[in-house]
Write a structure and sequence with these properties.
Layout: H1 3-12, H2 24-32, E1 43-47, H3 52-65, E2 70-73, E3 85-86, H4 96-110, H5 117-131, E4 136-140, E5 158-161, H6 169-172, H7 176-183, E6 193-195, H8 203-212, E7 217-219, E8 224-229, E9 232-237, E10 240-245, H9 253-267, H10 274-281, E11 291-292, H11 297-301, E12 307-310, H12 316-332, E13 337-341, H13 349-353, E14 360-365, H14 377-386, E15 391-393, H15 397-411, E16 416-420, H16 423-433
Parallel strand pairs: 1-4, 1-5, 2-4, 5-6, 6-7, 12-16, 13-14, 13-16, 14-15
Antiparallel strand pairs: 2-3, 8-9, 9-10, 11-12
Helix pairs in contact: 1-4, 3-9, 3-10, 4-5, 7-8
Length: 438
């Protein structure tokens, strides 16, 4: 076991709960570290249920196309913890020596105090970001917003709220209005805020919090739009129309994500010229989100001509977006769709699976070995059946794919295979495939 893994394991044991939303422990540790959160470059703070990663990746691509150095903080990771911390000095994931040094300093400063894993690792990220030069920090909320460990930045350059849907009800509330209150907690006095289109129940909390803080609010569909136009994307606001390429990330929902990213950079005063935006949009990369597998071990296990997709979406809102994308593929190029899925006990499988009704030939449910909080394949198969889908449990990803291969051979049609339901499963699939993020 390497040094980074050992210290991460120690930090996991510092609090009896994985999640315990509060800012007190975070402020205590940051004070002991000399308040690195006050020494950061300008920050764009990103909250929401779905699309945070895509919006962040799009902003990063546009900013880097303009020559900006971007620190980026996202979670969770797919394969290696280092993926959470991208350092703007060279644009890559944090190195093991730099990560270990920051984690060790945080462990020493914490002096054995109770603190969650996300809090202490976020403090380590702030140390790294404060000590390495960059032009901007794209800071993604871990969970919620109001009491999230990232919400210690007093005056970001802009805040953004991506679509809100049901998720983490145990911690954030059991209806969209309550969840939106938590997400809107990142809005700061006088700081511009950009919101995606939201469900009707979520809007009042965001509008109210922006008004309370006198924060200029721009809303997709009201103050700006992003829509397809003759094979391109048109971004339009009060200042006019920008003609841009369609997003390279899969799914029609990525038009909205790209629009929100552009509007946020504009609100923060960081939007480059049109050719640079176009260049950035062509280079967006966000692994594990409707990612096509074009080579590697998993593809070799599948029948000739098979399509394989990996997606880490895990809540009802994500289920709608992914199912819509699969439906669009079916219209353009019909073939039987097989789903291979694993999910955590904290998620809503019936809500996730329901949009796939009528699209899917069969669901194979699998364990997730990289977490102790996954549903058993048998339990998940029962819940997929509750959503109206045919489902069979398997004891490994390989076994589920072998069954798809056997079915496809019997049918005589090359299948379309979607591995989905959890970022943990997406990470395991990419690692098994030999295509971990780099």
């Amino acid at each position: 076991m390497d040094q980074v893994t050992k210290i991460l394991d120690r930090l996991l044991a510092l609090h009896p709960k994985e999640i315990d939303l509060s800012l007190g422990r975070m402020h205590r540790l940051l004070d002991a570290l000399g308040n690195p959160e006050r020494k950061l470059p300008p920050v764009i703070h990103i909250a929401g249920t779905n699309g945070k990663g895509s919006v962040t990746a799009t902003m990063r691509a546009i900013l880097e196309a303009s020559g900006k150095r971007c620190h980026v903080y996202t979670s969770p990771h797919l394969v290696a913890f280092n993926e959470r911390i991208r350092v703007g000095t060279d644009g890559g994931f944090v190195s093991d020596p730099v990560l270990y040094d920051a984690l060790q300093r945080c462990e020493d400063a914490n002096a054995g105090g109770a603190i969650t894993f996300f809090e202490i690792t976020t403090a380590a990220a702030f140390l790294i970001f404060a000590e390495n030069p960059a032009d901007i920090l794209l800071l993604e909320v871990g969970l919620g917003g109001r009491l999230d460990a990232t919400n210690v930045i007093d005056h970001p350059a802009a805040t953004v709220i991506t679509p809100v849907s049901m998720d983490h009800e145990k911690f954030l509330g059991d209806d969209l209005a309550d969840i939106a209150v938590e997400k809107a907690g990142i809005i700061k006095p006088g700081v511009p805020v950009v919101s995606a289109s939201q469900p009707e129940e979520a809007f009042p909390a965001i509008v109210r919090q922006a008004a309370r803080n006198r924060a200029p609010l721009k809303i997709l569909g009201q103050d700006f739009t992003a829509h397809p136009d003759q094979g391109r994307m048109a971004f339009q606001d009060d200042d006019g129309l920008i003609d841009l390429p369609l997003p390279v990330l899969g799914g029609s929902h990525q038009l909205a994500n790209a629009g929100v990213a552009i509007a946020t950079l504009k609100a923060a005063g960081m939007l480059p010229d049109e050719p640079t935006i176009e260049q950035g949009l062509k280079s967006v990369n966000w692994p594990g989100r409707l990612q096509p597998i074009t080579h590697g071990h998993l593809l070799e296990m599948c029948p000739g001509g098979a399509e394989v997709w990996v997606d880490g979406g895990h809540n009802p809102g994500a289920g709608v977006s992914v199912a819509e994308f699969m439906g669009e593929l079916e219209e353009r190029s019909p073939r039987p769709l097989y789903v291979v899925s694993g999910m955590l006990t904290t998620k809503d499988p019936v809500g996730f699976f329901r949009p796939f009704h009528g699209l899917v030939r069969h669901v194979g449910t699998v364990p997730i070995v990289s977490t102790t909080t996954a549903r058993t394949p048998e339990e998940l198969a029962d819940l997929a059946r509750c959503a109206g889908l045919e489902a069979t449990p398997f004891q490994s990803l390989d076994a589920a794919l072998a069954d798809v291969a056997a079915c496809a051979e019997k049918d005589g049609e090359p299948p379309r295979i979607l591995i989905c339901g959890s970022l943990y499963l997406a990470g395991e699939a990419l690692a098994r495939n030999g295509t971990a993020p780099d």
